[in-house]
Amino acid sequence: MSTPFSVTLQAQGVACDRGGRRLFEGLSFSLEPGDALLVQGPNGTGKTSLMRQIAGLLPLAAGEVSVAGAEAGTPAAEFCHYVGHLNGIKASLTVRENLAFWREYLASGLETDGLGDGGVDAALEVFGLSAIADISAAFLSAGQKRKLALSRLFDCARPIWLLDEPSVSLDTASVGRLGRAIEAHGQAGGIAIVSTHVPLGGGFTHTLDLHRLDPADDAGAPAEDVAT
Amino acid sequence: MTAALALLRRDIALAFREGGAIGVALGFYLVVIAIAPFGLGPDMNLLARVAPGLLWIALLLAALLSADRIFHNDYEDGSLDVLTMGPLPLAAVAASKSLAHWITTCVPLALLAPVLGLLLNFPIDTIPILVLAMMVGTPAVSFIAGIGASLTLGLRRSGLLLALLVLPLYVPVLIFGVSTISAAVTGPGSPWPPFLMLCAISLASMVLAPLASAAALRTSFR
Questions:
Q1: What is the CA radius of gyration of chain B?
Q2: Residue A228 in domain
């Protein structure tokens, strides 16, 4: 299989402060094309904060995050899809209009070798939203809203996926579909960083347990924290 | 550029579909101007003299009613997170959203102003300059409101705080907006020098305010 994506994501000594408390520090990892990182840890250990730091939405207390293989000057965030706890859906637009907007807005920056060119219709098909494409997003259930948010991943191609508990309110079949999508993304040379409390399939090449990085928990923070 | 246009189109579509904000702003403007003669009395000369000031002040207040929605809805539903990850710099996002506010709120208000001017015995032959001054001055209103909206993002009752923050910044717009119209109605002197100042204020706000908004938005993510 060809690998349309060829960027690597590196984190060097990343630390995170929230509300005056250090959540984690000395976090380093390096993800090659095709890698998928599973972020684990109890509530409040900084899974969401780490995702938001990589997405450029939270400042780094220390260290740096860089995307190699990218044109100089392009921020790491432009290579990432971020699906967090909030879905980013407009209730007064239809399902299709929501996706069409994100496609037009997000895709205009990067060249992506033909991936994700199925357009909005193909993106709707992934989670089976085609049947409800023309109803207003206000009438969607929580699970359907989640699917719509995740459909953004297929709407325009970006090499790095940041998924923060993507399986919340999804049904079992959709969780399986999401797991397979993460695997397929890896096969296409993409990188995925996923935090989850439910099993999402065997696509993960690395695991990061943030609990082990809690500075209050353990004095000797390890330098390389990613178990393969 | 495609991204900015896509965002602008979406914001305008949302404003017209949700509808409430525009209707409330226009209704508020109408009511304030309609009750002014009850407070000031039926002296037609007095009304004509205070009309430019009243029309401007009521327009500023009406425009502020929907100003907190410039960023708030996108912040609340998570769209703002995704918007920052697009190809547009944050300042361009702020500029696009402020422009959408101008198109959906200030332009309808400026077009309603001549109708309301009739209630205040505003001379009909100077209506073109009234609309012109308001069209030219209101971009500053929307773009400065964008600063207030980004500063108060995530706060409860942000609308009131926003008005407190932003209204003092509207003083230059008010002074030159009113003096343009007053000069055209009663003289003496030409309306064009204050009109050019109004243009300058709007142009400067359109360039500088998005930078301030972007800086404020960045702090709101923490």
A1: 18
A2: no
